[in-house]
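Support reply, case 0932

Customer input (verbatim):
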Amino acid sequence: MFEKKLKQPVEVVDITNPAMNSILGRYFIGQTGTLNFGNKYGAWGGIINPNNSGVNLYFDIFTITNFSSQSFIGEIWLNAKPPKKSTISSTVTPSNQAISPPPRPKAIMEYADYVAAPLTKGVNIFGRIVAPNSTLVSDSHKGSIIIAPGGSFSILLKSQGQQDITGTIVLTWWEEKL
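Our regenerated output:
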């Protein structure tokens, strides 16, 4: 009298999975050069998604390394205007090293040290204290921070004292065509 309908299994795909994006050649890791700051100067590192990139950038993880004996603050910014004088990072690579030729990101990682002015035109979404002689590793954002063409993800490093500080920033992200 009652017929039981069996449902077909549904395949679930996690599009925010960093490992899958790595397999597809869309996951990238970038590091700034050595950043020097202190005594009223800051340092900056970030990813810029160019206006004409044709991709959305999905942010995953950041690390900030402090090589000094004094703590400092790392401010995380979305869509801030980068400093005028910055350097394009030469240490950006796809995480999947098995693809030949290696994919190239559309986003550009830049950095600057001895930054005198604060970041502008963006939103400072949170800050972190970076302990002396340590590396702060963020939780994975799993792509929940999405940067459209023309946007950016930035970290501003700020000293609390007079001491010179040295650090680096590492960022990971993937890109998907619009």
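We compared this against your earlier run and they match. Two observations from our side: Residues 29-177 form one domain. The chain has one helix and 13 strands. Please reopen the case if you see a mismatch on your end.
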